[in-house]
Fold this protein.
Amino acid sequence: MMVHTMTADEVLSTTRAVRKRLDLTRPVERELLLECLALAQQAPTGGNRQGWGFVVVTDPAKRLALAELYCREYRRYRTEPRGTVSTAPTAQQATLARVFDSSDYLADHLHEVPVYLIPVIRRPMANQLIAGTWGSILPATWSFMLAARARGLGTVWTTLHLVHEEEAAAILGIPYAEIMQAALIPVAHTIGTDFKVGARMPLDDIVHWEQW
Ligand SMILES: Cc1cc2nc3c(=O)[nH]c(=O)nc-3n(C[C@H](O)[C@H](O)[C@H](O)COP(=O)(O)O)c2cc1C
């Protein structure tokens, strides 16, 4: 296990969106998932009330049904202008082509990924601060993904199945009116464990000191 060999900075800088390097042939040990889930639970929660949780899906029939919902939306998205390379600025086209190649692969193989993690949270009331809801589930989910990385597991944040959230809720027995799904995170052992630091825009472009 890698958990004691990676520094916090290595984990934070190399937790990539893993798609092509998910090992589709190897099951994920429940013990490893429980360790990641226990670490995720240490994340902060608005109002100090844990109104969130996770649905862990390993059942092949359920994964197939959820993957079908994902692919339905993914195929539609790929026909839109924002889902094609040619509409992007020239400088970004090569990167975008790589990301699409990788996402096409994920869509084709999603049903084969051994585990899905679905973060869930109480659906916000009309007068409730939306930031409080998202802010309570996203840190825990990212903590899970970091803990997974430290254990040789790969993950990728996905959201497209949420276009069909109500159908997904029916597949999983989630009470749709009360409980909202936040993402679908495929989880598998990675093929190799060497992941690089991601390319990001210069810090100066995104950081505003003292004022905008
Ligand atoms: C809110 C959100 C939604 C995303 N939805 C999807 C998705 O539906 N499918 C997918 O393949 N990747 C999805 N991603 C993954 C991003 O494409 C990925 O994080 C990005 O390409 C950066 O990859 P890197 O960390 O390897 O640099 C999503 C990421 C975020 C944060």
Remarks:
- The mean pLDDT is 95.
- The CA atoms of residues 21 and 191 lie 5 Å apart.
- The two ends are 44 Å apart (CA to CA).
